Description:
The protein has helices at residues 3-12, 55-69, 102-105, 111-128, 140-158, 165-175, 222-228, 233-243, 252-270, 276-292, 302-317; strands spanning 19-24, 33-39, 44-51, 78-84, 89-95, 100-101, 185-187, 196-198, 204-206, 213-215, 248-249, 327-328. It is of the alpha+beta class. A five-stranded antiparallel β-sheet has the order 1-2-3-5-4, with helices on both faces. It has a three-stranded antiparallel β-sheet with strand order 6-8-9. α4 crosses α11 (302-317) and α9 (252-270) runs antiparallel to α10.
Amino acid sequence: MENREIKKICREIPLLRDYCVAQFVDKGWSAEKKFYVQTHKGGRFNLRISPLASFETRKREFEALEKVRELGITMSQPVDIGKCGNGKYVYVLLSWVEGESLDESIGKLNIEEQYAVGFEAGKILKKIHSISAPENLENWEERMGRKIQLRLEKYCESGVKIKNGHLAQNFIQDNLHLLKNRPQVFQHGDYHIGNLILTPGKKLGVIDFNRWDYGDPFEEFHKMEMFSREKSISFCRGQLDGYFPAGIPENFFLLISLYLASVLLYSPVWAQPYGEEEVAYMKKKAEEIMADSENFRSPVPLWLRETKTEINEVAGQTRFGRNSFSVKREK
């Protein structure tokens, strides 16, 4: 999208007609075009533009964000939606969350601060998951079962090979029964350190809800393992403690391993349109996760087992502290 076209679009949108800045935001894998827009009156917005064919999808997303807004969390709030570009596009206008992306700022924090931020992220995710799924939604076992099988088929057809990938396939087939009777809630869809903002007031803001869905709340944590883990293990430990104040349910790690197994096989296939560099990154990520789980022989990841003593000490020092890494056994 050319610069002059985005300027014309801004003039079509009532709240942006007096804009003074319109900058392209080149981050993430979304097909949407994203812009930071500032107005002369001091308004700051996140403008997202998609082909008109996605209007109904964007409308549902906008309505979902209106529900999340009621939770009172710091987030990119829905402001306006409509058509633009002489009817060629749909725009979604969101509030701009001031601050620095957490994946860039986490390294500036000490271990205690990283844990505390992760703890807050866990509490926020718990709030997001308080929104129930529609009662008429198809059960999770059938919905997710189809998605997993499709991922496996695409992996087998692609020619892409992951080291010890057959062990991930075996683990999936042996554990599909875990999907039975799982609850379904509102999901952010891409909840990890790269979609969190550390505000100037040291609060966490949540952005990029465009992959939202309804599903098993535990599934949301596979993005923590995929993307947050490489940035900060202390953050991940804090996220788990913030979400599970009474202890981690016994079946949590088995379910996360099931979701991860299907994702790590499919991710390099999904990345193919983005180039060999992204495919190589996803393959490397898959092999790291396989190593963490000792090729799915241990549901609790190696990084968590190796660092639990250090993180326990950090947890005890923070104002959020509790005895970390407890597992709540199911009755």
